[in-house]
Amino acid sequence: MSSQTPPTAKKVPSERVHHGDTVVDDYAWLTVKDDPETIAYLEAENAYTRQATAHLEGLQETIFQEIKGRTLETDLSVPTRKKGWWYYSRTEEGKQYGIQCRVAADGDAPPELKAGEALPGEQVLLDGNELAGDSDFFSLGASSVSPDGTLLAYSVNFTGDERFTLRVKDLTTGELLDDEVSGIFYGGAWSADGRAFFYTTVDDAWRPNQIHRHMIGTSTEEDVLVHQEDDERFWIGVGLTRSERYLVLSAGSKITSEVHILEADNPTGEFRLVRARETGVEYGLDHAGDHFLILHNQNAENFELATAPIDSPADWTPLIEHRADTRLLNVEAFQGYTVVHLRRDGLTGIRVLPEGAEPYEISFPEPIYDVAPSGNPEFVTERLRLGYTSMITPPSVYDYDLRARELILLKRKTVLGGYDPADYEQFREWATAEDGTRVPISIVARKGVERPAPTVLYGYGSYEISIDPSFSVARLSLLDRGFVFAVAHIRGGGEMGRHWYEDGKFQRKKNTFTDFVAAAKHLAAENWSSAIIARGGSAGGLLMGAIANLSPETFAGVVAEVPFVDALNTILDPSLPLTIIEWDEWGDPLHNAEVYEYMKSYTPYENVSGQIYPPILAITSLNDTRVYYHEPAKWVARLREVGRGGPFLLKTEMEAGHGGRSGRYDSWREEAFVLAWILDTAKVEGTARVER
């Protein structure tokens, strides 16, 4: 490790008073993004991190080449049928971004595609590499073909701040139309006739709060505001049902939903309300021919599925009643079938309701896995497209024949370099939390690995987001060096149903952190783990900061990516993007003294102490609009000032957003950097590989 002295952040005391409590924040000056001193400090931190990890450059390059060498760089997706076209995407060796294509459909069977070979008649819809040009960052916010297949609406961003510019391409001529709308948010929806495109814009707090209608071929000055959401807790968005009969305008807070609908063939009409919002009631809608399907949680914690008449969508009749052991996640309507995505016992599943026949669930062979409907644009179909993966099975695409009731494997992601799933094992363990709650842990390791082994323990635990078992090419670089990889399915996530989420938020948020520590201690006690490196990002970065304060001796290192570590200051400031929305997740410390005291007792920045901390690597992005760069910058500064141990490293991507680097090669290099740091921190010899 380099002996270079780390940067020292200047201290500029800034006082705030809440509920009679005066707090001095010495590093609040780092919140001023356009201050040259702020940029200079971040660049100094980057320089220190580069020097402190310079001895890992060879290992980083080795791991990058391993990731690259296991990846089929020239590859393509399974084509998806929509009307008269097969749509697919492909990648080419040496290029950062994907290419979206289509070919005319000839029969019902997908065309046989070969990597690196364009099909006769292939039409390139979008080439991300051409769009990106020489930009350091590039992302798509929307890519939507009009119902008649003649126009493509897409939006691009080159900074990472999630604000996009909309363009429209004529797919008949290949020419760009004059239509251009700047400053829009993700997504959008076409009218049925392709004359209108509906898009979302944001307010000063970057909250999606307006839906606009753009008529193709007209000036943006003529665009019409069709809906504005004034409640600062709510986001809004717009979509088109699979049947293409209805535009669906959805407004939602963390705990409440409201839906409006409009006949898609009448884009200049007025959206009509489905059912007025009721605090705590969430619902969504899909069109199923002669009725609507409503998935809701009114008096149903884990949600139930109901039907509603077309002319009276507020009248709900139960179709699948609530069950305490099954969380209904989503519903998709097809002609003759209803498909429900669900969760039970910590695993996802698929339930099929054939019209006029008994419902049933599709079975899968592995003990832990993740499955979900994926890419089903046609309302009239006899096949259901599914995405499937596990910790040892690469991402797989299946068609499920709804008549024959059989799974048809269409494609499994190719992993080069002799990867064999039989060389690896996956397990489900259960830790016991402080209050006696059993917490599931998913584990993967190479067969024959000597235990206890160095371990990466990943966690998230917020917003009812589940970190389900999944495959990772990059992870193999750890497993083949004798690591165990584990995911702690902690409260605050959704793995065990809605109650699992409710038991890890508001005044029970600390359960998230103590569950993670319990999982780590279980792995050590059961001889799974020696050195444990904790890893998490965003709200999972809050988790990382909290467990570093709570039980630093349990972890050999901590990786915190875009970490929400200055949560109290952020949630106290309603002028910041997302803050008011977040009050339904964390509570409102601005107006509630009890919430303030509770948050102050666990938020990482406020609770840094003089104890000995493990090495910490914090990674952030300057243009992140969800977790600001200054949160980890302030946290690392305070760790250096108050804490002992470390070292504490901060790495800021100066041209990126919440998701980090955008190009696939850039993201592989970033992952290689993190994995090299993990290997070094766990004191694992970088070239030591488990024998095949």
UniProtKB/TrEMBL annotation:
<dbReference type="Pfam" id="PF00326">
    <property type="entry name" value="Peptidase_S9"/>
</dbReference>
<feature type="domain" description="Peptidase S9A N-terminal">
    <location>
        <begin position="6"/>
        <end position="411"/>
    </location>
</feature>
<dbReference type="InterPro" id="IPR001375">
    <property type="entry name" value="Peptidase_S9_cat"/>
</dbReference>
<feature type="domain" description="Peptidase S9 prolyl oligopeptidase catalytic">
    <location>
        <begin position="469"/>
        <end position="683"/>
    </location>
</feature>
<keyword id="KW-0645">Protease</keyword>
<dbReference type="InterPro" id="IPR023302">
    <property type="entry name" value="Pept_S9A_N"/>
</dbReference>
<dbReference type="InterPro" id="IPR002470">
    <property type="entry name" value="Peptidase_S9A"/>
</dbReference>
<keyword id="KW-0720">Serine protease</keyword>
<protein>
    <submittedName>
        <fullName>S9 family peptidase</fullName>
    </submittedName>
</protein>
<dbReference type="InterPro" id="IPR051543">
    <property type="entry name" value="Serine_Peptidase_S9A"/>
</dbReference>
<comment type="similarity">
    <text>Belongs to the peptidase S9A family.</text>
</comment>
<keyword id="KW-0378">Hydrolase</keyword>
<dbReference type="Pfam" id="PF02897">
    <property type="entry name" value="Peptidase_S9_N"/>
</dbReference>
<dbReference type="InterPro" id="IPR029058">
    <property type="entry name" value="AB_hydrolase_fold"/>
</dbReference>
